[in-house]
Amino acid sequence: MVKELVPEFVGEITDFPIHAMDQQVIGDLREAWTRYPVLRFRGVPIGDVEQIAMTKALGRIFQTTNVQHGKREDFSEIFVIANKKNPDGTPAGDLGDGEVQWHTDHWWIQEPPSAALLRALEVPPTGGNTYWANMYTAYAALSETMKARLRGLYIHHQDVLDISGSPRRSKELPFSKDFASWSGVDHPIVTRHPASRKLCLYLGASRERQTIVGMKQDEANELLDRLWQQATSPDHVWHQEWRVGDLMIWDNRCLLHRRDQFDPHSVRLMHRTTAEGGRPVAAF
Ligand SMILES: O=C(O)CCC(=O)C(=O)O
Ligand SMILES: [Fe+2]
C-alpha cells in the first residue's frame, strides 16, 4: 500500500480504501504516517467529507484560530487556502499568492496540532510548490558537540507578531524591543516524537524574532542561524509539485514546511484540515 519516495520521510499511498475505513485501515494509516511523516495520495477521488473522516482517523479536529478569509459556512473543519476572490471582490481563502516562509503550524501556542491534510482542488501551471524539511534527519546530522549543546535549551516563541510581522488579532505591540520579554510560549529545541519516539528539532518559525531562554542574544543568534541553516539545507528537504486531486498528509511535530509564490493571474485552491496534537515533549 505504501511506496517509499524518500526513506523515513516521504511515502505515497495508492489504492487507499477511503470508503471502507475500518479499524485495520486506520491502524495501517497511522503506522504509515509514523514511518513517513509526509504521505502523498495522488488522484484520490475524495471530497470534504472524506477529508474530514481521514483527519479524524489521526486525531480530534483542531479548530484553526487564525483564519481570516478561509472559513467555510458548511464545513467548519475546513480551512480554505486560496488566492481566489468572492464575487464581491473579497478573498475567498487565506495566504494569497505569496511565498509562505519555513514554519511549523501554530508553533506559538502551548499545544500545536499534529496532522495537517492539504488537498488540491485547483493548481497553477507553475509555482505554488510546497516543501517539507525532515527534522529527524536534521537533528541526526548534527555533530555530537552540537547535540550536547542543545540539551535542555528552549526557544521562546513570541505570540504577538505573525510570520509576516503583522500583529495577531487582539495583540498590542509591547513597548520593549526585547522579544524575550514578549508574551509567547517556550518549546524545547530537541523534542521526542510521541509516536515514533525519535528525536527531532523543533524550530517553529520567525527566526528573526526568536530568543533562547536564559541565553545572551548574540550567542542565541549564532546558534539559531546555524540550526535554521542546517535544518533547511537541501539534504533534508523534499518538495511536492501539485496536481489536482493530490492529498498530502504531514506531521507537524517533526517537519518544517514552506510554499513558493505563484503567478497572481493563476488560481490555486486548496482545502486544509488539521488534527489536534499536544505539547512538544523535551527529549532530555
Ligand atoms: O499552501 C501551501 O502549500 C501550504 C500552506 C501552509 O503553510 C499550510 O497549509 O499549513
Ligand atoms: Fe503551514
TrEMBL record:
<dbReference type="Pfam" id="PF02668">
    <property type="entry name" value="TauD"/>
</dbReference>
<keyword id="KW-0408">Iron</keyword>
<comment type="similarity">
    <text>Belongs to the TfdA dioxygenase family.</text>
</comment>
<keyword id="KW-0560">Oxidoreductase</keyword>
<feature type="domain" description="TauD/TfdA-like">
    <location>
        <begin position="4"/>
        <end position="274"/>
    </location>
</feature>
<dbReference type="InterPro" id="IPR042098">
    <property type="entry name" value="TauD-like_sf"/>
</dbReference>
<dbReference type="GO" id="GO:0046872">
    <property type="term" value="F:metal ion binding"/>
</dbReference>
<keyword id="KW-0479">Metal-binding</keyword>
<dbReference type="InterPro" id="IPR003819">
    <property type="entry name" value="TauD/TfdA-like"/>
</dbReference>
<keyword id="KW-0223">Dioxygenase</keyword>
<dbReference type="GO" id="GO:0016706">
    <property type="term" value="F:2-oxoglutarate-dependent dioxygenase activity"/>
</dbReference>
<dbReference type="InterPro" id="IPR051178">
    <property type="entry name" value="TfdA_dioxygenase"/>
</dbReference>
<protein>
    <submittedName>
        <fullName>TauD/TfdA family dioxygenase</fullName>
    </submittedName>
</protein>
